[in-house]
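Q: Joint fold for the lines below.
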Amino acid sequence: MEFKKLDAIQKRILMEVADLHSVPEGAYNIRSDGQLAARSNSANIEITSKENGSGIDIRIKPGTKNESVHIPVIMEKSGLHDVVYNDFYVGEDCDVIIVAGCGISNCGGQDSQHDGIHRFFVGKNAKIRYVEKHYGEGDGSGKRILNPVTEVYQEEGSHVEMEMVQIKGVDSTDRSTIAKVAKGASLLVKERLMTHGEQYAASAYTVDLDGDGSSADIVSRSVARDKSYQRLDLRVNGNAACSGHTECDSIIMDEGRILAIPQLEANCTESALIHEAAIGKIAGDQLIKLMTLGLTEKEAEEQIVNGFLK
Amino acid sequence: MLELKNISFDVLEGHQEIGIIRDVSFTIPDNKFVVITGPNGGGKSTLARLIAGIEKPTSGSLFLDGEDITDKSITDRARMGISYAMQQPVRFKGIEVLDLLRLAAGKRVSVADACQYLSRVGLCAKDYINREVNASLSGGELKRIEIATVLARGTKLSVFDEPEAGIDLWSFQNLIQVFEQMRDSIKDSSILIISHQERILEIADDIIVVADGMIDRMGPREEILPSLIGTASAVGTCVPFSGKPASVPKIPTDENGNPIPKKNC
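A: Joint structure:
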């Protein structure tokens, strides 16, 4: 199926999760309702289906620079439970952008679930930026469920930046991310999460800083509105002369609830680990300031939340 | 024109009502630059908050151009033309200086226009326009951005609560020039500043002295200022041990008298 044959809903979802308005440049793999919808390889990036059909392998040749891979997933069928294993093999000295994401449009009465298991094997001195967006829509009674698992294995001197965004429409999410970071490698994670209605979101990170000079900076910003619940579990293990920082910064509104569990384990006297966690409602002074600029209280609240999650 | 008529503001402390503002009446006419001064704890900031609508008076009324605004919200008053610069400006994670200036102007001001507001308060625009209004900014930087938001609004009444508080000497000199310029281009608007600074009092048309929640005295600068010099209500910029005013860096200005920002912009 060609990209252009995607229907209007699919195109809109693609825009939400991958910022794609048209066929992406470079390599891509689009999965729709559990099936391959479109794929393209580039000279340096090869995407192949796993033999058992459980997912795809993405191989990026050593030294590939300034290229991107898009692997969005779209789900429209109600009642579908899609499980997919995607493995990324990023060669030495690469510098690439990987855009993943899943959008569910569930207008039916049955639950739709996508569990994406992504593994990244990042070669020496390679640099990747990984962007993952989750989005849900549809007014059916069926739930939209996303349970992503991300595993990152970083070799010496590599640098991984991850942006994980889930702002709208996902009823339930249980996210697990683990990373193992070797000598001189660095990991930077920015997570943005907003829940509303009666949504539930859990996000757990376990980062092992295994090599001297390795570092991790895990920053999570979240907003829990209405009666939603979030559990944020950020753990960094310092196993060498490393530096790790986790930050969990949350706004609660309405009857939202959040449990933040920052954890640090220092297994080496040379490891330097810091965590910060803060949960609170929007400060009254922030609302007042924006109201003195002529915004209503509701507009002020929106501006503050939008800025916070930017 | 802003009019306060018999404004009182009480707070409950335990079971006792304490009068923070007691029967205060005054008028800020159009085209006037008015400074409120007086001892700390005298109720000056509370007056500014009452004018902005952040606090509601226990009794009395406020009028803006003859319209009763006593029951108007903060938002309504802002839209009617009252701007308010906080003594301790707020920080916002994720909101950039440009966003804040755009919200203040109420329209999509161009980057060039936004830069002008920043330059007027002595900030190198290109260094700040995309900075977040967060904890990475110093108190003085934040204060200048706060003043820039009021400039961007350009409303008929601008209220500044101790604009000089927390600002370093260089910035203070610059700030005086900002207020001098505002005074020169005041047409059909008015400015109310709460300040102890002699340099600001010196450019006032009228001075109101507030103490113990009441007006101690008010009138034209020439009448009031001499009695304030040397008291805590009119503090000099910086006086070294010799008793002579300290030399202060001269602010470079362009041909229009606008301060030229410190760095190469």
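Q: Anything notable?
A: The interface with chain A takes residues 52, 54, 73-75, 78-79, 82-84, 86, 89-90, 92-96, 99, 103-104, 106, 149, 153 of chain B (CB under 8 Å). Chain B is about 30% helix and 25% strand.
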